[in-house]
Design a protein that fits this description.
oxidoreductase activity, 334 residues, alpha/beta, eight-stranded parallel sheet, 11 helices, globular, TIM Barrel, two-stranded antiparallel ribbon
């Protein structure tokens, strides 16, 4: 698989979101199946794996996903880029710890969970409005100097927040919601990141599965499946958003690819610093997504696709600005 740069880190042009092995898409697979899927992804050329301290729910617990990923990648840890995220909760601000102490405590637990002595990319999972982002940036800069992390990032932020942070400690990557059906990042965040050599890591690049064409009005989301809260995936909006599926079908047939692969190929063509991290708990889907790197759009195909997309109205919108206590859903944070 081809590589691209996010900040100072070289990664496979398609990464892997690992959340689904712990929660978020209904019943999680077994640990053995999850570890095998991660290894298969590595064999297929993926060198960029994304997790978070908070991924783990119901029968699992905070840190479950990190522990799973750490176990899966241990034998090839030095050959990959490992990203994880922390939350800073308000109840942590009521004691005598400094912000550095709080962040370092979270980091130490993540290092233990991931069976490593450094993190390549350490994100603030959501902005805490009670902590200036500049203060977080200063702490991240110290952690970089001390060798605990190689780079740092922010998730679900606007360009104003990003700019404040970047002026204190250069940001390596922004992990925001971005896909054909959520394109807010194209207005300001992606251009800013391109100008300042910041990577954009796109989560839910297949629109929580919608852009695969496999989600219909008859699809039932069970248990903790996050898609029951995705605005575009209400039954009404699934019906209204079918024109984009019809468009993808045209290109999928022409390129002998899947709809999901076309949506990823579009993203890779459009921006040199955007790296999608599709998430799935299904090994077949994971490998299908990674193989999107083999689907190459011509200039003419991309331009026609882009023109058609601009003429399609999308129903349902989540946006990219989220913070602690004001999130997409109380039940889920990607």
């Amino acid at each position: 698989m081809k590589k691209r740069m996010i900040g100072n880190l070289e990664v496979s042009e398609i990464g892997m979101g690992c959340m689904g092995f712990s929660h978020g898409y209904g019943k999680a697979p077994s640990e053995l199946d999850s570890i095998q899927a991660i290894y298969k992804a590595y064999e297929a050329g993926c060198t960029f794996f994304d997790t978070a301290e908070s991924y783990g729910k119901e029968q699992f617990y905070s840190g479950h996903n990190e522990q799973l990923v750490g176990k899966a990648v241990e034998s090839f840890r030095k050959k990959i880029i490992l990203a994880t995220k922390l939350h800073i909760h308000n109840d942590e601000l009521n004691n005598q710890e400094t912000l550095y102490d709080i962040v370092f405590r979270h980091l130490q637990q993540s290092l233990k969970n991931l069976r490593t002595d450094y993190i390549d990319l350490y994100y603030l999972h959501r902005i805490n409005e009670n902590i200036p982002v500049e203060d977080v940036a200063k702490v991240m800069g110290q952690l970089i100097q001390e060798g605990y992390i190689k780079g740092w990032g922010l998730s679900q932020v606007t360009v104003d927040t990003l700019d404040k942070a970047h002026h204190v400690t250069p940001v390596t990557a922004v992990q925001n919601l971005y896909s054909m059906i959520e394109r807010d990042c194209e207005k300001e965040v992606i251009p800013y990141c391109l100008k300042h050599h910041i990577g954009v890591v796109a989560f839910s690049p297949i629109g929580s599965g919608f852009l695969s064409g496999k989600v219909t009005t008859h699809t039932h989301f069970e248990g903790d499946d996050v898609r029951q809260w995705v605005p575009q995936l209400s039954k009404e909006n699934i019906s209204k958003n079918q024109p984009i599926i019809e468009l993808l079908n045209q290109y999928a047939q022409k390129k002998k690819a899947t709809l999901a692969q076309i949506s990823l190929a579009w993203m890779l063509y459009k921006y040199p610093h955007v790296v999608p991290i599709p998430g799935s708990k299904n090994q077949e889907r994971i490998l299908e997504n990674l193989n999107a790197s083999q689907v190459i759009l011509t200039d003419e195909e991309f331009n026609q696709l882009e023109k058609a997309l601009h003429n399609i109205e999308i129903y349902g919108h989540r946006g990219i600005e989220e913070s602690e206590g004001k999130t997409f859903s109380q039940n889920w944070q990607k």
